[in-house]
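Quick one:
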Amino acid sequence: MNEFLRDLRYLSALPASKKHDELWLEEYPFDLQLLTASRLYRASREMYLELGGTFAPRLSSMMRSLSAQDLFKDEIDYTPSATELAWFRDHHDEVAQPQDDVAALSHYNEISLFHEQNHRVIWRMLPPPPKDARAIGRYLNFAESLVVMLDLALGDELGAKTSTTAERMKVVYRTGATRAYTKKQMRESLVAIQFASYCVLEEIDRRDLLKAVNYVLPGQAQMNKNAVKRSLDINELFTRVTNPEWQKRNWKTVTKKLAKFHTGTAQPLELPQDPLDLDQEFAITRQVLAAYGL
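Output:
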């Protein structure tokens, strides 16, 4: 409980500028603090709202989000708990079983709106989807790797202490790392992170991951090593069980829903069967980075 209270106090005390009121979800925990701290966090919110995205303040567990939330619907549920968290921060000593409250508050505060928004934005940035099951799986993994890349970029922008605290509170999903990179180097490191994350999602043997990244993105050995290390934080149960099983059950529905985002004549994104053959696809990665100002 002590760590939970320290995290509450730390995030609550971060600067919170009212000039971001038009983007602020008042009851989403620490939203104004994150809007104030991060240009990338603001850009994601702006892009989601521009495509017509909305939010629904409903009690929301991670399990319900994974099983019932429509990843292709421009409405995202979140638990409106900021007032409750602030009350607990200041009155926990009046609660008979404060640890029970911590468990309950934690259980219903595990959704990162930044991550969920970016999924909806990315669907519009990608070319149309392919039509067969395995090709759709690669398409979805490529999209997920782009979202993971943005999660890590946000962690870097927030800095190690703030991102680590925010990750424990589940308002962001990934922590940051401090690197002495130029903007161009930072962009290339994010490309490496995206590719390494895609390889993890495609279940390349983790022992071969660094060799794969060095083969596809040569001449940046240390950057690739850092990228591989960070990509391996993706939950292995998710990559080996949850993700492929979800794709197997839902690929036909997913194909129909994705097709609604693409009514023109653009060619489908058919990713190569072997991740080592990725090449032109990195133009999409860089387009995403540019759109987010990275």
